[in-house]
User: Fold this.
Amino acid sequence: MKLIKKYMKKFLSFVIVLCVACTAIAQIVYEPVSTVKVGAFYYHILSDSTAELYENQDYCTPYPIGIVEVPATIEVGGRTYTVVKIGDLALNSCTIQSVVLPETIEEIGVQAFNGYAGDTIVLPNSLKRIGKGAFASSSRMVAIDIPANVEEIAFEPFVYSSIRQITVDSANTHFRVIGNALFSYDTSRLLCYPPTLGIENTFVVPSEVRSIDDGAFYGENSIAHITLNEGLLRIGSRAFGSRLEGITIPASVRFIDGVLQENSQSTFQLAVDAANTHYKCVDNMLMSMDGDTLLMIVGASGHVTIPNGVTVLGTSVLAENYRVSQIDVPEGVTTIGVDALFGCKATINLPQSLQKIDTNAFYGTTKVKDLYLPNLETVGPGAFQNSKLESLLAPRLKYVGNSAFSTYKLKNIRWGNLLEVVEHYAFSGAPLDSIQPLPSTLSKVGYKAFPAVGKVVFNGSADTIGHNAIKSDIVRFKSATPPVFIGTSIQADTIYVPCNAGDAYLAALGNAEEYNVVEENCDSVDIALITPRVTPFNIAPNPAHGEVTVSLPEGLSSFHARLVLRDATGREVRSMEASNPTVKMPLQGLAQGTYLLTLMTDKGSSTQKLVVE
Assistant:
């Protein structure tokens, strides 16, 4: 009962805060029904009449580019679609100098313009929603104007940016600027306070404010003293800048998202009003009153041991703290929070009790290399991105978020039979030669989830497989029912499917015109083969004993052709370069039976059945 009351109390506090800051988190979730490329951009078709720009490969270069103009509409298959959204990360890190947005855009997604290199951007009057970090890290823009129809702005829209001045159209009834700070129109929410370059040294939070957003004062290096008002309910993570000398948490505060000041110095003065029943300060550590959640360690350095009784490491608790050399996380901790250990260079010892690793928790860490986490179920977006993780054994893993293992060091990962979702870019950049079979519990494989894996096996039928989800030598499906392929889901030399299911899979593939069903013999082989369309080759004799002669199509050279022989299970038993128009492949030592000989070229591959006697 005590446990129920504890979580009910937290839940009610959270609901109250949500009512205060609902405009920060309410977002429309679009479900794309197909993917297309028009001009330089890729789009998700969202409905019968709308589309979302979600990727632009042509402009994401390290060199500055001129004006980029987003079209108001696109034509696909004789239909006209209105472009209503700049998708999450759509123009992330694209060094474009200027962008023109049409008067059709209603939403700018999460980090859509992260790293934007332009001096200015004119937001259209049609705009209604601005996502989290939409203009984060924009390095040259110093001012921005919020149009009249914007009704939702998520947390940290301009964090890490060079923006010094924000203005709001006078007709906007949802937001306004007071002094240098951006507030909700009723002043109950303080969204952000851009750096003032020494204009102010102190700031008094207005009495009407109930919520201070994540990163509201982050990057503000002038304000040394902030007075928080009684009546304040919520303080976001990393809310305050590095110059702040201390803070006192009022009795009214019921919800703190995470660390108040990232990488604080030992001189930082932290206090909690004695009448506050939700938080406490113990030995320079900010914690929930029950001791479950650790939110901040003032002046952390050297060898840090997380106290027993803690179950959650809060948001950014030790992020980018280079003074810490070792972190010991005790048994009982179940959750590593968002950005909790982001960029840490310390040795980190993790417990087997761990169940959830949240967004960017180990992003860029350098000494977390081999992990066995028997109870881990969730790995959030970017959790190990750009880290030096080399191997992970997680038999209870269920969910893998966007770019969770996007790291060039990961060579081995093992999961059990519980995996349900693998999101976009999950293993992008990871040098995995192969992965263990994907279990029948799997329902979704996202965009570019496995972009470079030698062999991928599906034990069941995933519900959906995203555009460009898999690029592999071999993909095998064991279910006779094909999933929904979004766009060009699979690029493979050979796709193995159950016997008599070849035509169904071929029809379901988004790039079906590039493939042929070349083998479907239920008597001798229980699989059908789908391979890219290339000129067939000749093999003789067939059946063969001891040796087989392969005659290559005209126009192939030794630099472009390779022969691979596999048994009926897909296991490679022979391989050789095709160095001449006629190649002899030895068959000594092979058991009698039916094999599959594949000619692999830079233009695709072709597979034929070979019987060994």
